[in-house]
Amino acid sequence: MTTRTLGSNGPVSAPIGLGCMGMSDLYGPADEAEGVATIHAAIDAGITLLDTGDFYGMGANELLIRDALRARPGDRDKVTISVKFGGLRGPDGAWIGHDARPVAVKNFVAYSLKRLGTDHIDVYRPARLDPAVPIEETVGAIGELVTAGYVRHIGLSEVGAETIRRAAATHPIADLQIEYSLLSRGIEAEILPVCRELGIGVTAYGVLARGLISGHWSRERPMAADDFRAHSPRHSGANLDANLALVERLREVAEERGVSVAQIAVAWVLAQGDDIVALVGARRRDRLTEALGALDVTLSADDLARIERAVPAGAAAGDRYHPTLMAMLDSER
Fold first, then answer.
1. What's the pTM value of the predicted model, to 2 decimals?
2. pLDDT tens figures, 5-35
3. DSSP assignment of 96-121, as one string?
């Protein structure tokens, strides 16, 4: 498998990384055994980046990754583990804020190291900007963890151009994790150019818009009560109908190329630059296999133009999060 480097100073990664969140949280019930098997299949296929958050399943996702890596000695050395921290949750699973104070950073990393069963985290990042804490203080605290050997690289998540500049002036930043797909192209105006100016890579999550442009979503799709997409503006009501119409237009392009909708959507993200790694949130091996097929899809200039006509920038109906969660995104300010 070919590789890409996360920024000018970050780790080397396969073009596709595995987002592990859905194996433990937020997308309804999941099969833990299938999650472990999917992680193993990803490593066997050459995927090297595993992404998680300490608040996914309130630690359950980190424990799942630990179990997967412990089951096959030697796999830990094959992967880059990326961890987001700072999201605060109540016992009912509710989101109750963010904490990125230096003392909290060191507390969170201690628990993550224990749950993951490792002596270091490869990329460590605040999940959101804590409005009460200057980004310089948060990044400075992670920098101390880098010096101490507990963390290898610093990442950011869902922050805007000004915050990126301030963070990079404090410590080298490997990558920015942010939503980027055919339905979410807001980073193209300012955020992506600033990352490229500063030599910061991008790990793009939501490349299939949380399943919406996977080609497998339907109007009648049942969603569990604990599936946050049930409350997502893009997955609801008239917005869903409008977005599924875009998917059908994309399907026409995909079928002419002899590939699936998911594969052409992932291939589009990968075609936006060699400094972008696409995170695929596959919870099952069959979905992982389909996503990996995007690596065999080379899009020509004509293909890209046709995709642009099918799903032009700004065509998505509805915001990518509920208004309350949108207000927490520094990247949307």
1. 0.95
2. 999 989 999 999 999 999 998 888 889 999 9
3. EEE---HHHHHHHHHHHHHHHT-S-E
| Catalytic option among 27, 56, 205, 321 | 56
Structure tokens at 180: 């980027």
Rg (CA), the chain: 19
Specify whether the backbone of 26 is left (phi greater than 0), alpha (psi in -120 to 50) or beta. left
Banded model confidence at residue 325, pLDDT cuts 50, 70, 90:
confident
Closest CA to 124 of 90, 93, 167, 88: 167
Q: What secondary structure, in 3-state letters, does 297-317 show? A: CCCCHHHHHHHHHHCCCCCCC
Confirm if 188 and 313 have CB atoms less than 8 A apart: yes
Question: What does the pLDDT look like over 179-232, one tens digit per residue?
Answer: 999 999 999 999 999 999 999 999 999 999 999 999 998 888 878 777 878 889
**Domain of 208?**
4-332
Q: What is the DSSP string of 7-25?
A: TTTS-EE-SEEEE-GGGTS
Give CA separation, 115 vs 53, 81, 294, in Å: 11, 13, 32
| Bridge-based pairing state of the strands 12-13 and 4-5 | antiparallel
Q: How far is CA 271 from the centre of its chain?
A: 17
Question: How many structural domains are present in the chain?
Answer: 1
* Sign, Cα dihedral of 221, 270, 63, 154: negative
CATH code where residue 26 lies: 3.20.20.100
Q: What is the pLDDT of residue 226?
A: 79
Q: Is 56 marked active-site?
A: yes
